[in-house]
């Protein structure tokens, strides 16, 4: 499934948020993705559309304001019928390129220990488990913290 990737913009928020819970099997995920990410991180966030303009995937990421060596991938979604097509990998590679252009050498992200598909994907993308953090997002909300080292831009 060929897809075109472009930077996300504020007008994409409505298109993305309407799919989030469904793409996560009915889990209530929308509150984790407020519109502010589309307002403030256009340059490091992306959407992918098929040839008919249908949203097939998105990646919301940003450059750390605290650590000038780091970037962070906050939220990624791929339409169920586009999974396995390579579009997730393309989005990550696009984000890695932007992070490197800004001098970042580390990318971090977080997932739930129960999300074995996400864990497998991140490991396949070269992420290492930094640690499993108990109560990371509140009591009983453990998270797997990933880290990936990026080669610097020549």
Distance between the termini: 33 Å
Lateral strand order in the biggest sheet: 1-2-3-4-5-7-6
Mean pLDDT: 94
The number of helices is 4
Proportion of strand residues: 25-35%
Considering DSSP H and I runs of 4 or more, what fraction of the residues is helical? 25-40%
Largest sheet: 7 strands, mixed
Look at the helices and sheets and give the structural class: alpha+beta
Shape: globular
What is the number of strand segments?
7
Low-confidence runs of at least 5 consecutive residues: none
Rg, Å, rounded:
15 Å
Order of helices and strands: EHHEEEHEHEE
Structural descriptors:
alpha+beta, seven-stranded mixed β-sheet, 7 strands, 31% strand, 154 residues, single chain
Summarize this structure briefly:
By secondary structure, the chain is of the alpha+beta class. The protein is built from four helices and seven strands.
Structure report:
The chain is globular. A seven-stranded mixed beta sheet has the order 1-2-3-4-5-7-6. The longest helix has 15 residues, at 87-101. Strand 4, helix 3 (87-101) and strand 5 form a beta-alpha-beta unit. Helix content is 26%, strand content 31%. It is of the alpha+beta class and 154 residues long. It has four helices and seven strands; from the N terminus they run βααβββαβαββ.
How would the blueprint of this fold be written?
Elements: E1 3-7, H1 13-23, H2 36-40, E2 46-50, E3 55-63, E4 70-78, H3 87-101, E5 106-111, H4 116-124, E6 128-133, E7 143-149
Parallel strand pairs: 4-5
Antiparallel strand pairs: 1-2, 2-3, 3-4, 5-7, 6-7
